[in-house]
Amino acid sequence: MADVTTEKVHVLIIGSGPAGYTAAIYASRANLKPVLYQGIQPGGQLTITTEVENYPGYANGIQGPEMMVDFEKQAHRMGADIRYGLATKVDFTSQPYKVQIDEEKWIEADSVIIATGASAKWLGLESEQRLNGYGVSACAVCDGFFFRGKEVAIVGAGDTAAEEALYLSKLCTTVHMFIRRDAMRASKVMQDRVINTPNIKMYWNTDTEEIIGDNKVTAVKIKNNKTGVSQEIPVNGFFVAIGHQPNSDIFKGWLDMDEAGYLKTIPGTSKTNVEGVFASGDVQDKIYRQAVTAAGSGCMAALDAERYLSAKGM
User: Pairing relation of β-strands 136-137 and 151-155?
Assistant: First the structure.
């Protein structure tokens, strides 16, 4: 059996979206010599986003993948050691903390910054993936602006779906809302708001069969799962709001998390229940989930790590 290699680093950053890259920029400037592993999707969710218009500093907007290349270049210029690789296991029993990369190499770190993000849940349709970024989106706040004055559809039944439907209703002429059962999971107050919004049209007991369009969304085919009747509705945008899954599985048993798997941090900080381990970005944020808030929390994590290591004399 081959020897298991081990490497010692000062600060290890797991993940490479806005949170991870921002943490790398700040940690590098503090001379913490961070090593960042990019994970399974270098650049995170923004790499499957097209136009980004709501991130400060890009006056004319920017493509999501291009923005993440900018983030990476800046972190690299500051001195961050950026590597391909996926964290597959952790051991936070004692310091230095141990993180396994690609099921083979172990990294020992004085401090760990987690920025593994969250992944949108999808319906699993071929057309949904094919048209992702071309009218299909999992973020109304990010992309609703592009559908001003148009008709859109949204699928989901929880508070997030209700919030996104209400947000879209202020921009779009009609919001067609598809709910699989005959009731919503959303809180009563959110249900009431949706039901009482004139341009939100509710479809109960409804499954999405296909999103129609070649290079952009033109319609959606739905089916009533009680009557079996199908119909096509012309729309320009299709929003999936059935939830997100935080990428936190490898931390189970080590870090405190809520029932959905989001990592818990001490309010106002990036600190987890394990000292020297910090969480930033969408893996610990189920409320805002924006690039700018993720970047801000990456900054917090790097500053918290710097202060922690300084207090420890490391």
Answer: unpaired
User: Rounded to an integer, what distance in angstroms lies between the CA atom of residue 312 and that of residue 314?
Assistant: 5
Active-site option among 70, 81, 139, 159:
139
What pLDDT, in 10s, does the model give residues 193-206? 999 999 999 999 99
Residue for token pair 């079996």: 228
- Give pLDDT tens digits for 88-139: 999 999 999 999 999 999 999 999 999 999 988 999 999 999 999 999 999 8
Q: Is 143 one of the annotated active-site residues of the chain?
A: yes
Residue 139 annotated as catalytic: yes
pTM of the model: 0.82
Largest CA distance in the chain: 69
The number of distinct structural domains making up the chain is 2
Q: Which of 219, 240, 261 is the last residue of a domain?
A: 240
- Residue at a domain's end among 177, 209, 240: 240
Return the SS3 of 238.
strand
Domain of 45 in residue numbering reads as 6-119+244-312
In the residue annotation, 172 being an active-site residue is answered as no
Q: Are 181 and 225 in contact (CB under 8 A)?
A: no
Which one of 143, 282, 285, 304 is the catalytic residue? Answer: 143
Give me the amino acid identity at 281.
Answer: G
The pLDDT of residue 129: 92
